[in-house]
Amino acid sequence: MKLEYLKDLWDRYQKDMLSQHEMVILKRLLVKLPEEDLEALIDSTIIVDYNAKFPKENVYQTILKKLSLKSKRERIRNIAILSSAAAAVILLVLIGTWKITDHFGRENKVVGFYKKQKNDITLLSNSHPNFRLLDGKILPITRNVRNLRIGSIGIKSHGGENYSIIVDPTEENKEMYFAFENAKGKTSHLILSDGSEVWLNSASKLEISNFYGLGKNRNVKLIGEAYFEVKHDANRPFFVNSKDVEIKVLGTTFNIKSRTGNGGVEATLVTGKIFVRNKNRELILLPNQQANIQDPIITLNKDIDIGSVLAWKNGSFNFENKPIPEILEELKEWYDLDQIILKTHSKERITLNIVRTRSLKELLDKMELISNLKFKIEGRRLIVQ
Q: How many separate domains does the chain show?
């Protein structure tokens, strides 16, 4: 067996890029794969936080119930196994791939692949970002678009979700903003005209001045979430405006989260230094610090887990002891949900780090394993009970 070929199939399966024929081949190879190789393959896919806090006993009991273990002796033996290898078992459940070893009966060694359910919400394969022009006109950026130029602004595709933003500013124009907008379920990598880079999250919009690069102008606006790697230029600060918050940068890397509605702005510094201010206060952020701005209050948090903040950029959901309503609101930014109905007001908090899935039901099934909640999808509504 060519292990590299298997790894390639596995990687493309995670991205939902396999043909039906390749899916059959992958299933056959996984079933034949030696135990240690299968574990290594799964480990390469999952981000593990072995220090994560979660209600272990509840998780064990839920998994045992799912496995339908009957005998008391078998149940006691498997609780001991789960206690000694909790992370491995839980992660296998969460990824949706099961390998039942001798502890559960070797004849039951299986690999389970998720199949689309009737009541589900999945990411649209034909969704695309949009380019909003200075006059408000919207142009879809489909796969067929390679170069798009309208007057002094434009966009160039480099394949995948990678784009260059073109700005040729002139003083004759009035300053206006054009925008790059991501649909739900899409993330994009943008290279600005000065070499600064922006990773734009799902359902987010980056507005760029048509004067960008003219004189000292390096001005952008953000609605949603983005990670910035700003090209250093001591004479030309980089400004990000989001709601009533202004962030001034000389050259650094940082993340900004600013969702619509009543939510505030969250700025997290990775390297360098940034100045954060609203109409009442200004503060300086140093690496691993985060400013939470809920107008008019700015709160400074230190020793932030940067990996958790940037999980979205690496294709994962990361929830650290988060209440259920906050988690569901984040899922709403990725999946095409119109409404979330809470029929029960759970005080549960969840810690979960999992690769983003194309299927909402697939993710909810995994959340049910580590909580006492039940989720039901009706059309584009999510009911929590």
A: 3
Query: Is residue 123, in this structure, part of any structural domain at all?
Result: no
Which run of H or E residues covers position 66?
Answer: helix 56-67
Torsion of CA 352, 356, 361, 365, to 10 degrees: -30
Scored b (16 or more CB within 10 A) or e, 192-218 reads bbeebebbbbbbbbbbbbbbbbbeebb
- Give, for 26, the enclosing helix (H) or strand (E): helix 20-32
Domain containing residue 34: 1-45
Residue 219: alpha-carbon gap to chain centroid? 26
Last residue within a domain, chosen from 291, 308, 325: 308
Could you read off the pLDDT of 202-219 as tens digits, one per residue? 999 999 999 999 999 999
Q: How far are the Cα atoms of 211, 250, 328 from residue 234, in angstroms, in the given order?
A: 19, 6, 41
Q: Model pTM?
A: 0.71
Co-location of 332 and 225 in the same domain: no
The whole-angstrom separation of Cα 251 and Cα 280 is 25
- Return the CATH number at 340: 3.55.50.30
pLDDT in tens, 176-200: 899 999 999 999 999 999 999 999 9
Task: Specify the 3-state DSSP secondary structure of 300.
Answer: strand
Q: Phi then psi for 28, rounded to 5 degrees?
A: -65, -40
